[in-house]
Amino acid sequence: MKEVVKVDQEQLRAQLQKKLPPKVRLFQLDDIPGVMRSRMGWPVAAALMERWFRGAAFEMPYEMKRGDPPHQTATLNVAQLDESTVSMAWAMGFARVRAAMAKLQAQWSSPAGLSLLKDRVEKQGGVRPQPSWRFGSLGQQAKAVDKSCQVNVLSVGRLSDPLDDFYGAMGEAILKVAVSGIVTSKGAGKTAILIDELGFYLRDSYDFNDGDHPFLSQPLGFWGYGGVSRIDLGGRVSISEQWANEEEAQARRHAYWVQNQDFRRWRGMHGRGGDFIVLSDVHRVRLPFPISLEW
Can you tell me the distance from the alpha carbon of 86 to that of 204, in angstroms, rounded to the nearest whole number? Predict the structure, then answer.
């Protein structure tokens, strides 16, 4: 009798195993760049995320995110600074970037902007014997321009923006403006500058830190093989599962809730995932009518 029960249990187990679908690999966090590139047409966003996944594990300190000492942007090494992926020509393909540029061009000479300009002109002019000289060299890389002749900034991008390549790559970035012009000493401590060119560039920190909100991680949408959505389309709660007994077609329909903390968890598991600063090139705008300032 015992032998019969044993056979029945083995037969039942075999029957259940036959009914289970094969194990399939579920969508993973590091599948996102491939979906960005092939499914969504986001080449720049994909390139930046691929760089993050390839990099050695590194969590950006707050001072580096802000560009404060001892992590000023100009001093960062190649692992911590990307200067080749984002171009202003690409960024200006988005209406919100063009609108921000127009606004910053009109408003760069705010009291704060003029104060920074005056401070930088006086510091650089103190070692020049000639009465006239050019302030600002906009043909340099953005990190050099940022250190020498940048005068004002404007935020560009919001979390409510359209889901496009700029959103995936930069999200909320900083648009900066630098100036170039001829400085002339007027004597008796007076200085004049004739500004004839502006330079615009983007700066952003590529990281998945949550700052002062360790228990409230920033949401990054519902991701899957089909792309990304801001609303739950019936997907799984977590992206941490790797395998499941499902039909492949069904598994590929899932969408997964992704947050900043998922990237930090991935970094802890794999020993890769390096934060870095993003700088674009400098887009130069020659002014048809130079701006004359004096102090």
Answer: 10
Q: Which amino acid is at 264?
A: R
The amino acid occupying position 173 is A
With a pLDDT cut of 90, the percent of the chain lying above it is 73
Task: Order across the sheet with 256-259: list the strands.
Answer: 227-229, 219-224, 256-259
Q: pTM of whole model > 0.85?
A: yes
pLDDT tops 80 at residue 266:
yes
Rg (alpha carbons) of the chain, rounded to whole number = 27
Question: How far is Cα 133 from Cα 153, in angstroms, rounded to an integer?
Answer: 25
Q: What are the residues whose beta carbons fall under 8 Å from the beta carbon of 204, sequence distance 6 or more?
A: 86, 170, 171, 172, 173, 174, 277, 278
Phi, psi of 157 (to 5 degrees): 100, 145
Q: Is 17 helix (H, G, I), strand (E, B) or coil?
A: helix
3-state SS class at 74? helix
